[in-house]
Design goal:
homodimer; disordered N terminus; DNA-binding; Arc Repressor Mutant, subunit A; mainly alpha; 167 residues; two-stranded antiparallel ribbon
Chain lengths: 167, 167
Amino acid sequence: MILTRAKSSDRRKKTAGAAADAAKAIDFGPLATWVGFNLRMAQASSFQAFSKLSQDVGENPGRFATLMLIAKNPGISQTALSRANGRDKSSLTPVLEDLVRRGLIQRQRMHNDKRTYRLKLTPAGEKTLAKLIGAARRHEENLDRVIGARERTRFLATLRRIAADLG
Amino acid sequence: MILTRAKSSDRRKKTAGAAADAAKAIDFGPLATWVGFNLRMAQASSFQAFSKLSQDVGENPGRFATLMLIAKNPGISQTALSRANGRDKSSLTPVLEDLVRRGLIQRQRMHNDKRTYRLKLTPAGEKTLAKLIGAARRHEENLDRVIGARERTRFLATLRRIAADLG
DNA sequence: TATTGTTATACTCTATAACTATA
DNA sequence: TATAGTTATAGAGTATAACAATA
């Protein structure tokens, strides 16, 4: 969704008739002043920008989070990973299948509990993750430029409070 | 995804063995300090909270935006609406079909261009929108309580900059 | 009985391309 | 030729329920 404020300068009356209707800017009403809506718009922009950077690495943002969680928690089980991700374990099965197929992660049966797998990155997975971390860093630099160094700390703290208190 | 910081106090060793593994908090690595990630988490919390409030009205957040845009721009065409929403026009067809079927919006052929429809809310649509606006206001109150009156203006301005500059 | 992971299935949201009817 | 809207279709992401193997 594109936020375009209805400013008087936008109201062109080219042909002073039916065409003015088409050129008229969209009115978003109270949506434009609501935090919830602007949070959604900002997130969509940020997510899309990062998606593009991830695509340069041949991955997507979802894979990034999965790889990072496995990297930082080697030996994690599928159930624990799905909980950390806030998704049902069944949603994870095809994702992990894909990552195994492409040689980015490895699954080992646990010795003492043969029901569960231990997940870890392969060297190829580490390499892909490193590239994704590079993309994330570039994305953060772009965000920081827009946010400004002075705001960053406060902004981050507010985001954390929202996630914690509304979750 | 649930953000749980790995604090030393979280490392309980109840039975001092295999159980400690299960109780161990998840490490999110650098994700936890990145704006992009926290923006995503905050948006997910906010969106989910608003989804619940919308469900009390029997609608969902997507319908809310569509109804609002039609209400504030009566006579808008489907193509203009889909552009305002940032989605392809084909994605809108089933949504509008649903809203017409439930008597919330009305479609009129334009006189001078028989290809396009003019969209507007029915009285029932106005009523549903009013209820959704009430839900949105309650949601905003909850958000404002978390953000704080002092931060609100700055926070909103930063969100707007992100949406504008990264979009 | 409870848990881990898989399978079957379905639903939502989204997009692209081809189509129709108009312009 | 170009535009407004529809249809056919496909893909990603998600969930629930039932299941087999194991605990």
